Amino acid sequence: MLRLRRRLGLLAAATLLAAAACTNAPSSTSSSGKTVLKVAYGSTFVFMSPSLAVKWWHTVGREFEQQHPNATIQWIPIPGSYVDIVNKLNLLYRTPSTAPDVAELPSPNLGGWEGSGDLLPLNSYLSHAPWWKTFPKPVQNEGLYNGKILAVNHFEATDALLYNIPMFKKAGLPVPWHPKTWADILSAAAKIKSSTPNVSPLWLLGAQASGAEGILLGSGNMLAGSADPTIYDTATKKWVVDSPGIRQVLAFFHAMAAGGYNAPVSQLENPNAIANVPGYEAKQQIAIAVAANFWGESWVKTVCAPCWPQAPKVLGFAPLPTSQGQAPDIATTLGGWDLAIGAHTANPGLAWDFINTAQTRVNMIDVSNWGGGVPPDTAYFKDPLYSNFAPPFQAEFAQIEPYGIEAPSSLNYAVWANGFNAATQALTQNPRETVQQALAQMKSIIVNQLGPGQVETQQ
Questions:
Q1: 132 and 28 share one domain
Q2: CB atoms closer than 10 angstroms to residue 257
Q3: Rg for the chain, CA atoms, rounded
Q4: Handedness of CA 292, 297, 303, 306 (dihedral sign)
Q5: Residue 435: how many CB atoms within 10 A of its CB?
Q6: Residue 263 CB-half CA count within 13 A
Q7: pLDDT digits (tens, 9 = 90+) for 109-129
C-alpha cells in the first residue's frame, strides 16, 4: 500500500526507532536463554509516521511476548523509501543466517521472493485461521504462487476518485458526481479547466520514478478498468505489451496531455509524488484525483500529514468507472503490505503465532488506520474503530476492495512495470507523442530485458 506515504527523516521518531531496535545479529537464542524471533519491517515509509510504526509493531511484540514468555523479538527496522525496503530485504534473504523469521513485504514485489524460495508456505496454518475466511478472494490470492500461499495481507490499498465539491459547483457539474465512463472524467476535467484554470483538473500518476507502486496507486487503476486488464497471460506464460486495454489507458493519458488536464510534470515525476499529493489536495490544487485510500487517513489529527479537518466537507467520493461502463463498472487495483515467514526459519510455529497476533481485530484495524490502509478482513469494514477514524473515507474506500485486481506475482513484473511507466510518462511529458510511439517504447524496454519470446500482443 502498497501505501503509503510517509513522512521521512523525523529526528525524534528516528531516535525512538534506534533506541527500540535490536541488532540483527544471526542468533536463535538470547543471552537470557529465550528463543529469538527476528522481525523485519519498514520503519519510516509504510506507516503514516515513524512514531506510529514503532507504536504498532511494539504493541504486537509485547502481546506476543506475553503469550510466549520464553521468546523475545529482535526487531529489524528498515528505514528509507519503498525501494530501500525492497533492497534491504533482498540483502537479508541472501543467506539463511540474516533472513528474518517474519517480514513485512510490499505486495507488488512479492513475486521476486516467492520465485526465489525465500518464503514458507502458509496453507496449513491458514486452514485453521478464522480471520482468513473473511478475506475477499482477490486478497487471499495476493500471496498465491504455484498453488501455495506465501504471504498474507495485513492491510490493503484501494483507489477511487476524489473530487473537489466547490470546484464542481463552480463549473456547473453535478454534486454528488457519478461518472459512468472515462469520457465523463475527461468531460468534467475540461469544464474545470475552463472555470478554475489555476488548478490541476486531474491527478493521475504514471511515471517511472514511482516504480511498481506508482502503477498500484495510479495508472494501474485505469488498466484495471480497461477493455482488457491482462498484464501476464497465464495460458501462454507471456507478458502483454500491446492490447486493447493498454491502448485505452495510453489513449486516456494522451487525452489528458493534449487537454492540459493532468498535474505538472514536475509533481508527477517527483520520486516522492505519492507522499506529496495529499498536501496538494489539502491546498485545493486538484479538482479530480485517482486517489488512494490513505489520503483521507493522512488528514486526521492522529496523523496530520498534513492536517486537513475540512476534507470531508470539501471532497466527494466516486468509484472509478470502467472505460465504457462495462461490468463490473467499478475499477481499482489492489495491493498493500503483507506478512510472510522466512523459508529457513528455525521457529515456524512461533513465527506463525506472531502473525496470528498481528491479525487480531484491534491490531488489524490499527495498522489499517495508522498505515493508511483498508483491513483485509471484510468483517471490519463497518467496525467503528475503523469507520470512525477518518469518516467518510474509510467506509467508502473499503467498499470497493472486493473489486480489486492484483498485479501478477512474478520477479519479471518489475520489468513490465518499468516499460508501462515509460509509456505513460512519455505521453505525460509530450502531448505530441502518439499512442503508437508510446507502445513501441514500452515494447522495446520489455523485450530488451525479457527477450522477444517472453512477450505477446493481444487483439
A1: yes
A2: 20
A3: 22
A4: positive
A5: 18
A6: 24
A7: 888 898 889 999 999 999 999
Count of domains in the chain?
2
pLDDT tens string 350-393: 999 999 999 999 999 999 999 999 999 999 999 999 999 999 99
The Cβ-side half-sphere exposure at 357, using a 13 Å CA radius, reads: 20
Contact (CB, 8 A) for 182 and 250: no
As a whole number of angstroms, the distance between CA 158 and CA 401 comes to 6
**395 and 275, same domain (yes or no):** no
CA 427 vs CA 82, 100, 269: distances in Å: 25, 41, 13
Kindly state whether residue 256 falls inside one of the protein's structural domains: yes
CATH number at residue 182: 3.40.190.10
End-to-end CA distance of the chain: 32
**Which one is predicted more confidently, 219 or 9?**
219
The CA distances from residue 141 to 131, 146, 167, 409, in Å, are 15, 11, 40, 10
Q: Which helix (H) or strand (E) holds 139?
A: helix 137-140
**Residue 27 CB neighbour total at 10 angstroms:** 12
Same domain, 172 and 111: no
3-state class of 64 per DSSP? helix
Task: Find out whether 164 and 286 touch, Cβ atoms under 8 Å.
Answer: yes
Distances (CA, A) of 107 to 86, 154, 199, 268, 294: 11, 11, 33, 22, 16
DSSP β-ladder status, 200-203 and 232-233 = unpaired
Letter for the amino acid at 194? S
DSSP H helices, 343-434, are 348-358, 361-371, 384-387, 393-398, 413-429
Q: Which three cell numbers stand for residue 355?
A: 502473525
DSSP 283: T
pLDDT tens-place string over residues 316-334: 999 999 999 999 999 999 9
From 282, 314, 331, the end of a domain falls on 331
> What residues pair up with 203 in beta bridges, in sequence order?
289
Full domain range(s) for residue 242: 159-331
Determine contact, residues 364/377, Cβ cutoff 8 Å.
yes
Contact 189, 399 (CB under 8 A): no
**CA 434/CA 274 separation, integer angstroms:** 26
The 8-class DSSP code of residue 231 comes to S
Of 405, 423, 442, which residue constitutes the final position of a domain? 405
